[in-house]
Inverse folding.
């Protein structure tokens, strides 16, 4: 059996991050004079690169002007009140609605302008390796381009040096350094080792920790003087490093170095100084009487060239629970050591300064601890905490629950006297990594279990009362409890709370008494990176988008107070608001904002528009092909969300748009171009005829006031322009060549970003683009925008041309779009000829059928180009400045737009093309129109998206978010014939479309996010959930939440064995659980069941058991398995619970409460001698695990469980799956068992089992073409596929399961859901498995036919060898599983979906070349891939 492994959603969260100046946007170009205000309006502070598992994302951190509320501006405009002293003075300019703003250049003062700091997505890569570290590096070439390089480490002991390329607008690999062949790596268990990457502060070298207490050192050249004499200086950019070496710490530094916990480079030294934290003698809390204070720190010089490593300091006697090192600034020197119970400062002289954070520190270490008087009740735990310096003497300590504590290093000169911890500042994300972003006051708290937050730290002056000043201590604090908020609040969650220092008196005097101030550390939230963290469990549920039921994937995600549910849907969620049957619209709909004239005294005049209030649509134009020759309608709004048709026009409309500053309608029909008044009456009509008679029908058009473009059936075009008399006329097209030239597609586009005009290079005065003055606002003064119009055309030979308007001048030309190249630049070719051919040219598969240039984005839309080929291939390109060319063109044009197009998304569709020669009415009715339609929508949350909708038989939404990039989502319809955004009912979030269900008015479902491959919505619950299930009969969610409770041990008499004896010593914490019954409509908890404080849920299943309470004799119940923790001296026990969901009288006191109310009813509790870790049901019986056994039980009289059969299996059962009377048992030690159950007599029989020892975390049945396989997952991310075949000699008469395939996913799958893929004439449906991983990824396993598998396997080999992979990683090695029991890897049966998906993003020339080498065709391979991934996620 063959299978395809495909990641539906990449890993979520941030494990590693690096702040650096990676792109040129972070460097201020001194050659370009920019005003201070314009620089502030769009300033890129730095780049941030984040990684989790195999996903790497690049962001820009921009500081931009805060947007002024539109409602505030509208209110000011409505009131129209004039303020005093509003006359302008010298250096000021008038601004509508803003008075006067001083823009004089003579002043040196910076105006206080409100700004915001935000993330903006740049690039994303799914790597063929697991990231274990990232760092910023400066090399020799950084002296020239002022840019940093990115150093990434991977799990298989590799280092990759990457840099940004402006030519490809992406990362490129400079070098790869591998140490996987080193003896330290070859002879160690890499799965149990966690590598650490550190870079010397001056980038002199990088260090990667290896097993066996070794470190790989990679030196970097920092100047030409550092290079060897025999090395050519021109190679410094190619080879910016010297040979690396492996430093064996016990051999080369000190033989006592063992069990290295952390290491770091110290700043402020000429030669690299490394501090190593290690444990010479391992111990634990049970051996503290024998071995205590076993950690040491050694600081030594790293002399790279002489290979000499002298020790400069050695500090021993550190606590046995030390965790990490935090290097201090060069002003202080030394390091901060974070242990579980204390913070310790040590310097090169061996001085130690301690700060205990609980009462355990003095009991577990002999170090002298002095508890500050105000912290006698302080009881903190530092495991899982992260720390970072915000200035030279203050660092922040972020605990594992996200609470932030400031710590001051009090020093007299360079001698540290004490450490002072202040009260908590705020509660932020649960940290996995925290880093200061460059020289800015920004901190990024990366979280692996939820959103990562960007905060700004600032020290502000605050006046203090006389009583507070008398206290006179550095620990003086102003605590504001209202500022203690968690991450769920979006505004002001980081308020001022803690005083860091007390300054002497200063400031102004009041009544002769000077004011006293102190410096207060303040944190403020800037932005966040959305994430949901690990997936604990997942289940499919039934959700309602309006009146339509849709499948929704519900996942339990996050941890602690960041826990909750994340909901995924396959299509972009939308709901139907109604239907407008009267207007039809099968062949097209256009909703237009036409300014209606106001009549007064017999005269009509235009109503003035409010520039701060967006105009809403006033009418809808629709058209249908039946009855022949078609009919068009103009409708306006009426009462109660309905429309009135004011005009009916015979004929089919090709396109419509606003004209003459939105005072008229430009109406294009198949044989005429008409100008209509707002009421539908005709102002002008131009018949599309020539001297010989009517021309071929108009099949497409593009309208952009004041221009009109038409494309006829014979591929000729016509161009029209407005006149001063309110009419239109034909425009001369002689610069474009012969008027009979052929064009496949084209259209106008308007650039509001100023990109095109800024990139326009001309030898004459640049008057070839139309610019208009826009309303003067504050943003316009900071950086005046420019608006320009352009024309893009596609000739039959594949040439795409861009022409300037109104003077038609060719400014861009290329043939690369026809082959969908990754980067497209100007070919500088002259005007191409596309005269008619004899015989007429037939359409080709690689012809460009549709092309559009439109903005795409959320906060700051950017220009993109959309291309759709006739074969079904779509590509989206981002338009960027091209930069300076290396060589001038051979034949320069008078005008050129120096831009480039970078492909950001590519997708292949399976399309059906009927006989295009048939011209009947029925054929016209069945014709499917595929086109790109731009839209702009504002959601209820206030977010505005500028996107594109793709109509046809693969209708899709194309949108781009600030933090997720360009995404393509299916609309959920089979076919969409017509689409238009519509604000006729005063809502900017409505859409009109005509699908297979007819015409309907839609809007997006609220609260969904579009930052990933699937639309998602997070339901915050403030706690973590370990298990969830969907109960189908009531459509409710049953979930088990995980909480923390204090744990105490008792003796046989019920007395506590231990109690806290100090205020800073507390009970340990243990897991406990509650069972919740949740309504998925409003996500409220209807009922719950609390377990004991030492009892936690390990399994929840929906099982069908025999009962006498129903007519059918069976009923669905909720079975829950628990474990009871009784301490380390007593064995763990467990329980099995049976619950029923019963309906009760609803509570109508709340308007948002569901109409029907349910509760949990406990029917049975069955105690077990061991933990109940897995449950399932089959044939009306309950199967449960208890320690090393599994039991089959019957539900007797709805009140007790009666055992009928049992079986001894492994050590710890992790998973149970059943089909009919067949059972799969997954074990943590003894792999998988295949078991059958019989009723007469009751018996469990082992049919087969895996003879090797594997830790199985999940097990499933896998069906394909009436064949059965067994799929298992283990804790290392290995997916194994087994066969049960008693006829095979290797199966030992069927007792041994045959291992057929091993595939390394590098993600631990602990939960799965099964989907049936039903096909015609198939007795058994195929199986699709959906997995949830602990790294947040969601993947699927799809069965593949043998013939398709062979083709894709050959393609996979071509992709492995013939394309450039990021960081020069090997996709084949990435998936290979090491197995000492077989002679060669068993990787043939599984396909890598992440690798094969890259085939669709290649250019068509590369696709044809690769498929030719494997003996097949491009279309066949794409058809295979589309058939496997059809229906998107499920």
């Amino acid at each position: 059996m063959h299978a395809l492994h495909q990641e539906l959603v990449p890993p979520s969260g941030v494990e590693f991050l690096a702040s650096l100046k990676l792109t040129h946007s972070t460097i201020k170009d001194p050659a370009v004079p920019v005003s201070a205000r314009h620089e502030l309006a769009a300033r890129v502070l730095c780049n941030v690169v984040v990684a989790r598992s195999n996903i790497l994302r690049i962001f820009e951190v921009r500081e931009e002007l805060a947007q002024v509320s539109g409602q505030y501006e509208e209110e000011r405009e409505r009131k129209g009140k004039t303020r005093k002293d509003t006359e302008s003075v010298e250096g000021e300019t008038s601004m509508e609605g803003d008075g006067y703003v001083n823009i004089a250049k003579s002043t040196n003062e910076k105006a206080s302008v409100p700004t915001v700091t935000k993330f903006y997505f740049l690039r994303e890569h799914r790597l063929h390796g697991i990231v274990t570290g990232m760092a910023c590096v400066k090399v020799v070439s950084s002296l020239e381009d002022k840019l940093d390089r990115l150093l990434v480490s991977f799990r298989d002991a590799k280092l990759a040096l990457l840099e940004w390329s402006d030519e490809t607008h992406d990362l490129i690999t400079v070098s790869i350094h591998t140490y996987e062949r080193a003896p330290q790596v070859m002879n160690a268990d890499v799965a149990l080792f966690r590598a650490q990457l550190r870079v010397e502060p001056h980038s002199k070298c990088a260090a990667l920790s290896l097993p066996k207490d070794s470190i790989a050192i990679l030196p970097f050249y920092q100047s030409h003087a550092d290079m060897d004499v025999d090395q050519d200086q021109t190679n410094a950019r190619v080879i910016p490093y010297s040979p690396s070496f492996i430093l064996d710490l016990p051999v080369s530094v000190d033989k006592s170095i063992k069990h290295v916990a952390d290491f770091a480079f110290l700043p402020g030294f000429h030669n690299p100084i490394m501090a190593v934290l290690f444990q010479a003698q391992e111990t634990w809390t049970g051996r503290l009487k024998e071995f205590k204070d076993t950690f040491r720190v050694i600081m030594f010089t790293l002399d790279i060239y002489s290979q000499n490593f002298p020790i400069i300091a050695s500090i021993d006697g550190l606590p046995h629970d030390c965790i990490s090192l935090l290097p201090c600034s060069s002003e202080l020197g030394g390091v901060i050591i974070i242990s579980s119970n204390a913070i310790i400062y040590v310097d090169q002289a061996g001085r130690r300064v301690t700060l205990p954070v609980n009462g355990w520190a003095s009991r577990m270490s002999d170090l002298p601890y002095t508890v500050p008087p105000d912290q006698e009740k302080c009881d903190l735990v530092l495991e899982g905490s992260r720390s970072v310096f915000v200035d030279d003497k203050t660092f922040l300590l972020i605990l594992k629950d996200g609470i932030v504590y400031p710590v001051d290093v009090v020093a007299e000169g360079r001698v540290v006297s004490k450490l002072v911890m202040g009260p908590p500042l705020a509660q932020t994300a649960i940290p996995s990594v925290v880093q200061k972003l460059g020289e800015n006051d920004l901190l990024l708290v990366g979280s692996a279990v939820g959103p990562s937050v960007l905060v700004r730290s600032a020290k502000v002056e605050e006046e203090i009362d006389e009583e507070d000043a008398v206290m006179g201590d550095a620990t003086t604090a102003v605590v504001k409890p209202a500022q203690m908020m968690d991450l769920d609040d979006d505004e002001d969650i980081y308020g001022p709370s803690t005083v860091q220092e007390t300054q002497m008196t200063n400031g102004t005097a009041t009544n002769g008494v000077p004011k006293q101030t102190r410096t207060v550390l303040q944190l403020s939230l800037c932005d966040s990176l959305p994430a949901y963290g690990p997936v604990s469990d997942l289940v499919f549920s039934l959700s309602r988008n309006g009146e339509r039921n849709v499948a929704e994937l519900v996942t339990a995600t996050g941890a602690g107070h960041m826990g909750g549910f994340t909901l995924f849907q396959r299509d972009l969620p939308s709901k139907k608001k109604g239907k407008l049957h009267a207007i039809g619209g099968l062949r097209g709909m256009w909703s237009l904002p036409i300014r209606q004239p106001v009549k007064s005294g017999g005269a009509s005049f235009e109503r003035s528009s409010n520039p701060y209030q967006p105009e809403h649509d006033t009418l809808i134009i629709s058209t249908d092909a039946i009855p022949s020759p078609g009919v068009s309608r103009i409708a306006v709004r009426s009462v109660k969300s309905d429309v009135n048709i004011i005009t009916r026009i015979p004929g089919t409309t090709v396109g419509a748009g606003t004209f003459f500053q939105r005072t008229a309608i430009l109406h294009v029909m198949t044989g005429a171009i008409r100008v209509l008044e707002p009421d539908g009456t005709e102002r002008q009509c131009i018949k599309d005829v020539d001297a010989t008679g009517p021309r071929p029908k108009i099949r497409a058009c593009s309208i952009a006031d004041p221009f009109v473009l038409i494309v006829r059936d014979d591929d000729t075009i016509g161009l029209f322009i407005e006149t001063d008399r309110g009419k239109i006329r034909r425009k001369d097209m002689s610069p474009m060549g012969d008027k009979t030239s052929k064009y496949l597609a084209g259209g106008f586009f308007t650039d509001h970003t100023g990109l095109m005009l800024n990139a326009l290079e001309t030898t004459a005065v640049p008057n070839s683009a139309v610019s208009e003055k826009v309303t003067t606002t504050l943003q316009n003064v900071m950086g005046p925008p420019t608006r320009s119009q352009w024309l893009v055309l596609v000739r039959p030979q594949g040439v795409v041309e861009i022409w300037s308007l109104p003077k038609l001048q060719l400014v861009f030309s290329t043939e690369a779009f026809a082959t969908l190249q990754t980067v497209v630049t100007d070919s500088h070719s002259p005007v191409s000829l596309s005269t008619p051919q004899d015989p007429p040219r037939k359409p080709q598969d690689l012809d460009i059928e549709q092309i559009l240039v439109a903005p795409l984005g959320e906060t700051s839309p950017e220009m993109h180009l959309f291309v759709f080929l006739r074969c079904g291939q779509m590509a989206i390109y981002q338009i960027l400045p091209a930069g300076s060319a290396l060589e001038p063109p051979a034949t320069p044009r008078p005008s050129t737009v120096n831009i480039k197009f970078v492909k950001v998304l590519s997708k292949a569709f399976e399309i059906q093309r009927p006989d295009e020669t048939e011209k009947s009415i029925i054929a016209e009715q069945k014709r499917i129109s595929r086109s790109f339609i731009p839209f702009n929508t504002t959601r209820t949350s206030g977010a505005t998206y500028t996107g594109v909708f793709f109509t046809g038989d693969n209708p899709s939404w194309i949108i781009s978010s600030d933090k997720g990039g360009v995404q393509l989502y299916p609309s959920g319809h089979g076919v969409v014939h017509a689409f238009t955004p519509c604000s006729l009912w005063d809502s900017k979030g409505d859409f009109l479309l005509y699908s297979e269900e007819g015409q309907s008015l839609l809007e997006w479902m609220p609260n969904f996010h579009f930052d990933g491959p699937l639309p998602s919505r997070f339901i915050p619950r403030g706690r973590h959930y370990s298990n969830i299930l969907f109960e189908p009969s009531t459509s409710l969610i049953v979930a088990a939440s995980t909480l923390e409770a204090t744990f105490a041990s008792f003796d046989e008499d019920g007395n506590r064995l231990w109690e806290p004896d100090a205020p800073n010593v507390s009970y340990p914490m243990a897991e406990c659980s509650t069972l919740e019954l949740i309504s998925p409509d409003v996500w409220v908890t209807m009922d719950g069941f609390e377990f004991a404080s030492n009892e936690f849920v390990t399994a929840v299943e929906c099982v069908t058991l025999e009962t006498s309470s129903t007519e059918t004799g069976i009923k669905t119940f909720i079975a829950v398995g628990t474990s009871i923790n009784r301490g380390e001296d007593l064995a763990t026990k467990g329980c099995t619970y049976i619950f029923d969901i019963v309906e009760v009288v609803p509570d109508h006191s709340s308007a948002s409460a569901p109409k029907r109310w349910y509760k949990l009813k406990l029917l049975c509790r069955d105690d077990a001698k061991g933990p109940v870790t897995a449950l399932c049901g089959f044939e009306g019986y309950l199967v449960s695990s208890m320690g090393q056994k599994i039991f089959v039980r019957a539900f007797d009289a709805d009140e007790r469980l009666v055992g009928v059969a049992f079986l001894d299996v492994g050590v710890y059962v992790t998973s149970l799956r059943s089909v009919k009377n067949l059972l799969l048992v997954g074990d943590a030690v003894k792999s998988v068992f295949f078991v059958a159950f019989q009723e007469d007599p009751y018996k469990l029989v082992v049919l087969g089992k895996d003879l090797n020892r594997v830790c199985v975390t999940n097990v499933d049945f896998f069906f394909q073409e009436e064949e059965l396989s067994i799929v298992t997952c283990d804790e290392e991310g290995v997916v194994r596929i087994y066969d049960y075949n008693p006829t095979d000699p290797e199966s030992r008469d069927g007792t041994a399961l045959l291992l057929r395939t091993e595939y390394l996913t590098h993600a631990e799958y602990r939960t799965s859901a099964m989907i049936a893929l039903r096909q015609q004439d198939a007795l058994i449906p195929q199986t699709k498995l959906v997995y949830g991983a602990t790294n947040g990824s969601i993947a699927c396993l799809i069965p593949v036919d043998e013939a398709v598998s062979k083709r894709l396997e050959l393609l996979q080999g071509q992709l492995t060898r013939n394309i450039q992979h990021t960081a020069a990683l090997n996709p084949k090695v990435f998936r290979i599983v090491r197995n000492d029991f077989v002679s060669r890897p068993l990787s043939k049966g599984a396909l890598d979906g992440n690798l094969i998906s890259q085939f669709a993003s290649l250019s068509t020339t590369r696709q044809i070349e690769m498929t030719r080498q494997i003996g097949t065709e491009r279309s066949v391979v794409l058809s295979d891939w589309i058939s496997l991934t059809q229906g998107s996620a499920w």
Q: What stands out?
A: The mean pLDDT is 86. The chain has 15 helices and 98 strands.
